Predict the 3D structure of the following.
Amino acid sequence: MKKFSLIFTMVLFSLSMLIGQRTISGTITDDKGEALIGANVLVKGTTTGTITDIDGKYELKVPDGGTVVVSYTGYTDQELALGASNILDVQLVEGVMLGDVVVTALGISREKSSLGYSVQEVGSDEIKKSGTSNAIDALNGKVSGVQITNSGGQAGTGSSIVLRGYSSINGSNQPLIVVDGVPIDNSTTSSNETNASGWGTPTANRGIDINPDDIESVSVLKGGAAAALYGARAGNGALIITTKSGAKKDGGGLNVEYSYGMTFDRVNKVPELTEAFARGRNGAYSNVTHWSWGAAYASNPVFPDGTILDLNGDGERTDISGQAIPLYSDNMNAFWDDGGSRNHNFNISGGNEDGGFFASFSRFDQEGIVPQSTYDRTSFMLKGDYGLTDKLTVGGKANYVTSGGLRSNEGSYSGGLGYWHHMWDINDFAPKAPNGDHTWFSGAVPHPRWITDEEGEDYTVNRIIGNVNVSYELTPWLRAAYRVGVDNYSDTRKQVRPVSSVSANSGAGDVREIRINNRDITHNFMLNGQADLSEDFDISYVVGSELYSNEFDRIYVRGDAIVVRGLDDITNTESQAIVNEIGGKKINGIFGDVRFGYKHFLYLGLTGRNDWSSTLPLDNNSYFYPSANLGFVFSELTNLSWLYFGKLRASYAATANDAPSQSLRTTYEAEDPVKGQVIYSLGDIQANPDLKPERATELEFGLELSLFKGKIGLDAAYYTKTNVDQILEVPLSRTTGFTSSFENIGEISNQGFEVNLNLNDPVDLGDFKWGTSLNFTRNVGEIVKIADGLDRVSLADIGWPSNAEILAIEGDPFGAFYGYAYSRTDAGELIIDPATGYPIPETEKTILGNFNPDWTLGINNNFGFKGFNVNVLVEHRSGGDMVNGFRGLLVYAGKDLVTQDRYYSATDPHANATRVFPGVVENGDGTYSPNNIPAQLTNQFYQSVYINGASENLVEDASWWRLRNISIGYTLPNSLLGNSFVKGVELRLSGRNLWFKTPFKGFDPEGSTFGATNLQGIQDNAVPNTKSYGFDVKIKF
Amino acid sequence: MTNIKYFLLLILGTAIFATSCSDFEEINMNVNEPEDAPLNVILPAAQEHLWGNYGSNNSARMTFNVYANTFTQHFAGNHATGVDYDQYFMNTGDEEFFFTRLYSKAFIDAKQIIDKAAEEKSPHYSGIAKIIQAVGLGYLTDIYGDIPWSEALQGKDFPYPSYDSQESIYTEIQRLLSDAANDLSAGESLSSPGSDDLVFGGDLSKWIGAAHMLSARYYNHLSKVDASGSASNALSALDDAYAAGFSSTASDMHYGFDGSAIHRNPWHRLWENNLIIASENFMNLLLNSSDPRLEAYWDNVAFGGTAVGYTGKCQGFGASNTSYSPCGPNGYFGKSDSPLLVATYFEAKFIEAEAAMRAGDAARAAAALNEAITANINKVVSDPDGLARAEAYLDANANETASSISMAKIMTHKYIAMFAQGIEGWTDVRRHDYAYPDYLEIPKESCTTPVATEFIRRILYPQSELNNNPDKVPTGVGIFDRLWWDK
């Protein structure tokens, strides 16, 4: 809190010291005289610039003799030399997308046309239209070269984003997120005993704290060259988020905006079940089983004599012998709640000729479709900058976010949901008896609603992100800037599993408290400027240094066995176990960037950075990485009328990455004390005191075209990158005494194409317009080498019922699935067991699939009709597999659709299914003959052979097509508002995931069990996704 | 003015950057994870990892010592993994965890103890650590045969340890046990274990006795390889054990559980989800002979309270709709704080009986068998109904003489007594080619179709070895292949 007050005071201070100075101002309009909102106004050759406000007005400090560049998407940009007047009104002509200014590394705004690498920017409007609470999800389908997955439909869950393919086997593949020049923490910290895995409770990536309403733009720096200046931390690319700011303006003035949005959410897909069979085993009712392998409902089964059971969840066991076994349909669908969210956002911005400010307040409340799950986020932000003198500008920002909610362990409720029998109504059967006991019959598997209602994890995050920055113009060609940014959060979590929770100490219960503190501080000092060397040559340059430090402290306390029932406090437990993880890291870096421009058609950029990292051995902790990029605007050399703009670009970058922290020493680790004895055991990972940095090189070629007055825009990129010396947690034979060691081995390559095609209103009938943009991504990854004598690394063993592993294996893309296949002949035919007629599972594992898609496509359509704007985003993912572990559980339970064909006995008319598996039978002499044995589809077959035995039955194609977004916006015409104090009203109806098609048999394949980790493509738990309807209104005052 | 400005800037720039790298080393360490630890915190780690809870309180992983009781046919599979084991449906993923835990936890921790104890001259610690290694090696080699040892536990100095023959592993077990007895007898030890020794609380004489008893066990395992040598070696080791005080149930080696939420006996955890339950043949054997141990072994109430009586399941049946008797908290073995039996006096007496019989000393065999049965019943029977039958049972069974004794009687009685000690029980059964008890047969699915044509003889090497040590792990291994001592 102290830090917050300090920054807050500094920002206020900077705003209050109003001193006059000379600036220019004006209005930017289109050729019809309508104000252009958000047009870019930039002092040529510098990074100084602003954007126009709602009235098209701007203010900007410009050095004498300077030139102003005005640009706006879809309009030809204009350059104007500064004359005597301080008023500079500009009318832009609709045309080409030249002169788009994008935010590049270190927050430097640059004309996109001059860049030698790919940068893609997503604006606030597009983020708003996506209607999600996590800013990362908002990029779905809008940017090529990205792969986004979320962790299901609980409120406030995390998302993983990977740019240009997985390039690190063990390390993080998540890009660096930079907000207003300050890198922020985007880690995902699990609620498990150690912070190692993401299984269970779906915790969020901390990027979720950024209020999407505050975002002005997100620049996606996909390649090494784009992100090179950020050094090691941006080894996987970077997302540069710029928040909104107040425009400077003559005479002051305020813009006030309020918006409200709400959504209604519902589960979008659940697995298909058979409801043909009642609870039981081998065709008869059983009062103790979790299985639905009982009598067919078609045979009108009744409870046998002596059945004493609680049928309604009131905690009373009664004799129900002779009653018909009830059937409640659709439990799998009915379990999920109707969810929804509400979002209030209020912002006020303004400024005078010397400075501007932006202040916002937002409150987001969400109820997830997982029962009881909630998420809320409250965000305050104040941001401003002020020109103290002609040359000295001070700015600052403080953003306080508090978020929290309740979430459930997916692993815990999935078991009960999978086994739940049709004879109980999942919502009417109360999970808790009046005396507080768990009501469901099972001593091993809890009622799923016991988990969601009684065992949820409460959490609160308090976070402050702020910066203070000063910039000083030393000479017209050199500016010095210093920025210090802080990102500090605490995350408090508490989970109580009350007495009678079957999975917690056999009903004795437990209490967990987790406290996480994370602090990042980044100092950044920079000298930059630009100069015209001659008529034809210009140059711009940056040199600077960056100091980054991180401190991380996570304490996990588990109290076992609650003593006094109902007193859910950690001190009220029999024994407590504590795990404390303390970590930290420092990186010092210096960097330089120089760019040459020749006659506005040839641009060369060179960068270099050297980092020193605390995670590497002291005597070998320095590493340097250079990059070069070239932009060739060939359209400047031609006079073709249809070619408005054409550029070829090429870049090369070397990047590097340091080691995971604390990986240089083998240590002892504390374990739970036994009988009061403190226990330390040698760690599983053999450390490596000689680690070197990981290295990567990336080569990128691109083509940008704008044809027919900008009606057609194309941006295509091809890249190839190679990561070598990967710091791998190499699995060792367990017989070495360790499970793994850190080594600099391993090589991964990724190659890909990214194509963005824009058709700017090819249909333009005056009132009606249609435009579309396509973005296509194809990334082919390959693990080139792991180590001598080792061609695979197991990343996770999923276990029963799929028994699959996720592997990195030489020659395959990252993320192969490895498991037991059916035995096949060399010709690929199934080998059938002559005794049973079943296929035979192998006893050793083989490769069964891979989670990486072959390609993805986003098609974004825009229709305009008078004040209406309709946006339709369709997305496709082609190829890529998932392990459907949850379906395995359903098969085991006798509920999956496939088990509808089953065999109890030859005389059971409802369950006598046999199947002749297409395959061959071995003749005993090495030859085969076709199989004609009818195999009985018994529970034994499904439970031991179909799942558990053969993993291959649970590896499924996870391709999909979906209508990601549809939104209908309407802007009230000004005539309707008249002269009231309301300056504008926008209304929008939207829908997300309203239509969706996939061959995958589980929940939406976007939902992944392991959250934002490298372990993608696993759906071991019930992780549903949502479809939602939304409504938004925005009012400007 | 301008010059001063530049100068100040330079200072600022340098000052910002010049925070030295001196704290780099400190920030890269976790103070809670030391590079060194004293012997008295590593010793309980090694013991707990060999015998204790397998995983945290949420994990219901079972040791192979539990599952092997389906191979001995004391237990039958009830559902899921239990049925897989019962029906010989094995794959390379089965005992991954057991294998991993021994090498990367128990063995390496014991090695740290041995190395540190040698350095600081505390042989009492190294003695116990060697016994831990010997017992662990015994568990592993008796289910896998050849296993790594001579090149094991050296981290990436030997990233791909070779597999030593089972014969050499047996030599190593004996060497470790004999070294252990010497170390434990040392007059001087800088530090000696006390309450940090979770097995004997620092009672070194008990450890010495146990070392000799274990030595006898592993000599006796070689009955098929060297019938007479194994017998005389076992008998002489037993003499050493008795001389060292291993002469009654009071000297039994247990691993105890405190019964708290986080430290419960594995059978008690198994009871909750009932993966394996009583086998019909074994239950009938107990019932037909009015065995006093019936109630000590089996509960007549299933988890959740359903009365099931004393009923066993047909071996290899698969899933069924009926509930059977579990090994639960009413008996000796399935309480939350029941001990895990590691090396007992009654086992020593059974070994003596078998070895003496093999050596041709029927009188010693008969006396030892009578003592073994009596010691076992006295140890585990406490139920009043069981106690009421004990005397009659002992009169009928623990009265063998040199003329009445037979190998069948010794091994059948040992089989009954070695209840719930899966690995050791399975070794006995295999050494006698599944001949005792005489009813043993290949499990039958649905009680009709045999699941195989042979009895299971070993399990498959773990998948992690196929993944991470592919050139060294023996290939082409099947579950019906016999180990070296089983040829």
